[in-house]
Amino acid sequence: MKEVATITLLLVYSCTLCYGFSQATPPIHPSSHRRKQAIYQTDQSQDIEQPRFRLEASSSFGIDPSSELPKLLEAICCVCDEYGVRFDQNSMSNIFPSSQPSTSVPGALGRVIIIDVYGAADINIDESEFITELKIGMSQQIDDCLYSEQLAQPVLLAFQSAAAKSATLDGIIEKEVLDYGLRDGVDRDLQANRDDLSFIPFKHVKLDGAMIQTIESPGQCHFDTSSIVVLDNLLDDSLRKRLLNVVNGCPEDDTSTDHCKDGPNPNRWVRGGLVDVVGNNSDGEENDGPCLGLTDDAIVDICLHDHPAINEFEARLAQLFSDFIVTKLPEAVLGDCVSPITANAPCHGDNFEFHIDADPMQVPPSPWADVFGRYPNRSLGKPRFVSVLLYLNDEWNAEEWGAPTKFLDPPTQECYEVFPQPGRCVIMDQDIRHTVVAPKKEAGKRPRYSLVWKLILHPKRAGQDMTDLSCGRQKCWPEPELLGSAAQQIF
Q1: Reported pTM
Q2: For residues 417 and 41, what is the distance between their CA atoms, to the nearest angstrom?
Q3: CA angle in degrees (0–180, nearest 5) for 183-184-189
Q4: Per residue in 55-90, pLDDT tens?
Q5: 8 A C-beta contact, residue 353 and residue 440
Q6: Which of 72, 138, 174, 264 has the least CB density, counted as fewest CB within 10 Å?
Q7: Cα(387)–Cα(342) distance, rounded to whole angstroms?
């Protein structure tokens, strides 16, 4: 497979320029030889040696040959002309107009163009800086076609040595998924025998009902709702305390530190801290004001360093969502400015706004978009974006101190509130509009600690129902409470 370089190309401007993130942050994913950089940027100040070769477009999958393919080939040709590279756009011999479902990566879009590289026998296509820069230029041109609605969905570009011609559609998609860690599941081995009763929710709420497009049946629509699931037994008190210690930079077995007495540790928390939600909002519960967030070093610590408490909880999530492959948000979805795990410590006087965490329908040009496309969350057989929120305080008097997480039903403007409780777990679709409410004055300096995971649930099989989170426990789950438009079917 080394002859094949599958390339998805993120638009050259970075997340900071595109979405107005207010603070640059260090990468939160480990680098490795196999994992490509998720955000490509061209450094025009460097002169990259131009090798001598020519390109031919040999195959296309899932691309309309009359309305889309000529535009794509013209975009590729334009970039090749700019760089003085010969490109034969009339040599394509294999055209498969229908999207080809991947047998190994359920939910993959299957829109691919294969480009053969001639005269590259002595070039490592995967490592060539010139080819990388060339692909970035092609990405920009393809993105322009997307934004001008000349294309229906993103396209995955695959470059292979013409001498080898070993690329298969499944192999191309698998390599892209591997290179960018798009489907790296969390560890499932720990706590394998946990009591199933801990996976039964206290509450299940549906809201934000609307008619949305049915991706598997073009031209048709269906009624869709987002979900909030509240579990009070998933997190036992011992693990809750260990996670609170991890968040505050203490040993997991520490029993002497009072995390609430004097407010958050200033060496671990900072006003206007990590900003990591698209749209100049911060993480799953903060906004763009001067609210407390973890420092960059603290984010790197909880995301990259080994913490048994985090590993143990992620194993519980894998068991809870046993019908899916559970992954933390890859860097290649929104960039390295959005961490897959973060924490919050809102205090009295903080101000917050409604926001969403993410929406697969609105992801930017990226490796993720090129493999999986853009689609409504909860679509049949497509990865589902969910966030998991844990309340970590040793005690919380909700009646006196307040600080609920508030969820909005936009069509009716009705709200649903979930109040903190030690160890309570809230699972929400990432496209739900939500906000935290700051603690009341009676809470004093006491912060309301929480830890947030941003997850993607991948289907294990093609055409899998992604709306059911019960994973075989439906008979034990409470009947969903329908809020606002979910009950009234306002759309």
Answers
A1: 0.87
A2: 42
A3: 130
A4: 999 999 999 999 999 999 999 999 999 999 999 988
A5: no
A6: 174
A7: 11
